[in-house]
Write a sequence for this structure.
């Protein structure tokens, strides 16, 4: 922007100063981009890498612009202040066509570059499969044919046998191809897992921060979804779409384990008796009733699902 | 301006006016009446809006009190849901929209040299709907079951669950209030646009019009295009809620996604209805306090309409994770990103205006500088949110809450404060105390960074928005945010004190205290009922001629002298 003020031949010290400013802005921006990975939870799915890199790119570019603009503003604050009784005007510059074209075109190029990269990332992840609308209540949904998700050959069997993910006010239920029901989600590490998302009452959001993935569950629709967990561990699964009364308590865990451990868990789970899952919303609602049902109106929690394996509310999660 | 004769406390011409004007003695009652004077209506809007700012602020303090600890311990989660719903609704529909309409009413006629609005009665009717739906909304606190707790999006099916089954319930009143607000805004929009198109002073072509008026037209056009869609969507919601239809209910063959399209088709552009006038305020203020012409006036003016157009085709970026197919996500990502271009043009133009200027750091200037600084940050997080894979992670988390509060509070509300500090002398005839103003700015600036920055961090780590309780790992960010929020509460004290005491006994304001260029500054402070009456000046140059030595209007000295003599009563 110095060019506007010194529209003659640029003075050497001004050029040097500008150069130093741009270089330090660049250095700071690279540093911020590197830092940005630390602002995110552990990376536990195949999506995390590309998403985090894209975010870092944006942090870098964003920092450069933010520091650049606020640097210029700070400069004017320091050096362009009017002395107390100086009633003069500044330089009567009304504009500069070249500069205006530059600051139209450069942002355009930058955002289109970002969009292009983002489309590439979405294409590689391809987590979202088809969506079918089902009318006639939730019972009909289980019969609904899963739309083709165009899986790789190796994944074909898994795609044909997805895990059902059912969101309710306010509980999670997972039904595995072998008939196991659980209220925490177990997934094998390093394989593409196929999910069928549905909700029985209102919209819910399937959100696992460690996976960097989120997808709404929409009543009346079955949505095919797939993801690849890449790191063993226990992570939070949170309802991300506001779902009424005890929305905040509608959390459970995802447990990612090596494929053998996962198979063992499935087999072992099937031997457990079905029992109601532990459910924070029901506990809170009962406490509320015990205190005389004070507070504003809410629908009562749906009965907790009957599961072979219930989530353990005390188990520590990594993120 | 050094008067020797003791000045009467009001412009003598007001006694001849058919209806009273601000600044005249003993007729505060006109603020409680169906008055058709745009300046009275403007102040009615402002005062009502500031009252609701306090209401909305109080609700947010209770919310931040709840969120200072991870568990839901201060209020029941259902109460938290009602509080956050009402907070958002009050802030948008009862604070921001009304206060911006207050600015429209106060500024548009004097800025374009019109005596009043094109449709004064429509104007007054639009205002009086605000207290009506304000009361309806507040009444919902009192109905059985409490107010709506479905958030300002009111997504079905959750919003129409109606647990108690009463016909009159919080959600019913909420929809009614929002629909009335929409009708009021449409009435306002018709009036503002007509006034600007038809009632400009002689010589004031489009490219001699102040940017505030450009942005007013750009913003009000959105209201006319978008609000009918929202209102239709809300009426269908009301039918589903109260009359058993199932437009949005899957059991009856409806689709909840339909509502989301209706809602965001208006509610995304709505954010630009709020921000565009503030862009206008910044564009007015920087030239005054940097003593320079607005950099690239023509481009800044036209960029307003580029924003209007683009804002109408980006709404699906609120639905990236709702089952939107990939091609549609990509398309709407690109359109959203394009908005950054005209927006960037404006930001760069303001910075260009500052460059090489003679900056005067009045309170109004401090709020403008702070607002632009925060807006650059929010624009960058906005691009991140527009990026599909990144939004899939941070959408519906506190990152979004951080983003839009940085816009809505730290940019728009800053702009509103800047506008108040700048034009208060013009419309009340009194100066504000700069000391209290600067205290207000410093507290607000620190408070807003402390409140909203940590929210971004919590969101990146995966804290969902709209929660009444959260996992302990988010506690630190939330403690900071709560402390910041309480500081913001404290910051309003010097502000209110300043407004009230200055209006009552502040120093008399001269016609042009900031030495600004603009038709409104050629009028006495406060301006008489009909502004220039039948002596409307002829505009002969563009609006920001600082340092160019060109008079704004023909016979400028005469108008200056006239305003000054009116002020001193000579
Ligand atoms: C360069 C400019 C901007 C871009 C690219 C942008 C982008 C976005 C995107 C993509 C979202 C959706 C995030 C999500 O829900 O997952 C969003 C949310 C939001 N933005 Fe912006 N934004 C920008 C500027 C603004 C402005 C100027 C305003 C206000 C005047 C604003 C207010 C909001 C609000 C209120 C929401 C959240 C609505 C809600 O979820 O309740 N943004 N923004
Ligand atoms: Cu939007």
């Amino acid at each position: 922007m110095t060019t506007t003020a010194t529209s003659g031949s640029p003075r050497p010290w001004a050029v040097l100063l500008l150069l130093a400013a741009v270089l330090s802005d660049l250095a700071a921006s690279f540093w911020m981009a590197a830092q940005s990975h630390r602002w995110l939870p552990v990376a536990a799915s195949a999506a995390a890498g590309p998403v985090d890199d894209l975010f870092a790119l944006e942090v870098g570019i964003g920092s450069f612009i933010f520091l650049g603009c606020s640097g210029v503003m700070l400069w004017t604050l320091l050096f362009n202040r009017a002395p107390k009784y100086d009633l003069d005007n500044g330089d009567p510059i009304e504009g500069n066509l070249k500069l205006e074209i530059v600051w139209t075109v450069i942002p355009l190029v930058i955002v289109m570059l970002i969009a292009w990269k983002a489309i590439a990332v979405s294409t590689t992840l391809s987590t979202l499969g088809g969506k079918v609308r089902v009318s006639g209540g939730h019972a009909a949904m289980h019969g609904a044919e899963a739309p083709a998700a165009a899986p790789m050959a190796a994944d074909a069997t898994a795609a044909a046998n997805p895990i059902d993910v059912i969101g309710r006010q306010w509980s999670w239920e997972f039904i595995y191809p072998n008939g196991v029901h659980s209220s925490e989600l177990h997934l094998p590490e390093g394989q593409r897992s196929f999910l069928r998302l549905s909700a029985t009452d209102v919209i819910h959001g399937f959100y696992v921060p460690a996976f960097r993935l989120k997808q709404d569950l929409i009543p009346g629709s079955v949505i095919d979804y797939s993801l690849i967990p890449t790191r063993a561990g226990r992570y939070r699964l949170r309802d991300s779409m506001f779902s009424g009364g005890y929305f905040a308590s509608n959390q459970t865990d995802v447990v990612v384990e090596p494929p053998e451990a996962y198979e063992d868990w499935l087999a072992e789970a099937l031997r457990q008796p079905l029992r109601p899952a532990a459910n924070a919303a029901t506990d809170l609602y009962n406490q509320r009733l015990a205190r005389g049902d004070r507070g504003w109106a809410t629908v009562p929690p749906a009965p907790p699902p009957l599961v072979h394996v219930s989530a353990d509310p005390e188990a520590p999660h990594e993120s | 301006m050094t008067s020797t004769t003791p000045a009467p406390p009001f412009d003598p011409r007001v006694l001849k006016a058919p209806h009273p004007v601000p600044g005249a003695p003993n007729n505060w009652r006109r603020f409680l009446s169906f008055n058709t004077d745009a300046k009275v209506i403007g102040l009615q809007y402002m005062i009502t809006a500031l009252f609701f700012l306090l209401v909305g602020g109080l609700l947010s303090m209770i919310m931040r009190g709840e969120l200072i600890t991870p568990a839901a311990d201060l209020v029941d989660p259902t109460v938290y849901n009602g509080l956050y719903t009402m907070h958002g609704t009050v802030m948008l529909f009862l604070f921001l929209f009304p206060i911006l309409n207050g600015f429209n009413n106060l500024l548009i006629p004097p800025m374009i040299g019109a005596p009043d609005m094109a449709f004064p009665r429509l104007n007054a009717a639009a205002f009086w709907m605000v207290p009506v739906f304000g009361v309806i909304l507040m009444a919902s606190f009192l109905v059985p079951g409490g107010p709506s707790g479905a958030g300002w999006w009111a997504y079905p099916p959750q919003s129409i669950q109606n647990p108690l089954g009463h016909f009159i319930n919080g959600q019913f009143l909420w929809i009614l209030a929002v629909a009335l607000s929409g009708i009021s805004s449409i009435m306002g929009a018709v009036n503002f646009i007509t006034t600007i198109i038809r009632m400009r002073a002689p010589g004031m072509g489009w490219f001699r019009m102040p940017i505030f008026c450009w942005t007013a037209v750009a913003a009000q056009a959105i209201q006319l295009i978008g609000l009918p869609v929202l209102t239709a969507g809300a009426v269908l919601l009301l039918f589903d809620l109260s009359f058993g239809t199932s437009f949005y209910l899957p059991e009856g063959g409806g689709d909840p996604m339909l509502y989301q399209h209706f809602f965001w088709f208006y509610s995304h552009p709505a954010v630009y209805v709020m921000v565009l006038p503030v862009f206008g305020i910044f564009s007015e203020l920087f030239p005054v306090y940097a003593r320079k012409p607005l950099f690239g006036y023509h481009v800044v003016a036209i960029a307003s309409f580029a924003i209007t157009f683009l804002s109408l085709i980006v709404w699906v970026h609120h639905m990236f994770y709702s089952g939107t197919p990939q091609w549609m996500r990509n398309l709407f990502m690109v359109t959203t990103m394009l908005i950054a271009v005209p927006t960037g043009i404006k930001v760069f133009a303001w910075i260009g205006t500052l460059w090489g200027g003679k900056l005067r750091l009045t309170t109004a200037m401090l709020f403008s500088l702070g607002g632009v600084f925060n807006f650059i940050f929010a624009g960058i997080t906005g691009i991140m949110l527009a990026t599909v894979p990144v939004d899939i992670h941070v959408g519906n988390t506190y990152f979004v809450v951080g983003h839009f509060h940085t816009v809505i509070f730290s940019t728009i509300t800053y702009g509103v404060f800047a506008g108040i500090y700048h034009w208060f002398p013009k419309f009340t005839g009194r100066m504000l105390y700069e000391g209290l103003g600067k205290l207000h700015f410093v507290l607000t600036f620190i408070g807003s960074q402390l409140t909203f920055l940590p929210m971004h961090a919590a969101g990146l780590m995966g804290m969902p928005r709209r929660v009444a309780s959260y996992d302990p790992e988010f506690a630190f960010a939330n403690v900071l945010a709560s402390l910041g929020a309480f500081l913001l509460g404290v910051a309003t004290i010097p502000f209110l004190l300043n407004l009230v005491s200055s209006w009552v006994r502040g120093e008399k304001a001269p016609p042009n205290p900031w030495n600004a260029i603009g038709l409104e500054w050629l009028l006495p402070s406060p301006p008489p009922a009909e502004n220039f009456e039948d002596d409307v000046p002829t505009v002969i140059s563009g609006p920001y001629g600082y340092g160019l030595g060109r008079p704004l209007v023909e016979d400028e000295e005469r108008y200056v002298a006239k305003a000054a003599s009116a002020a001193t009563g000579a």
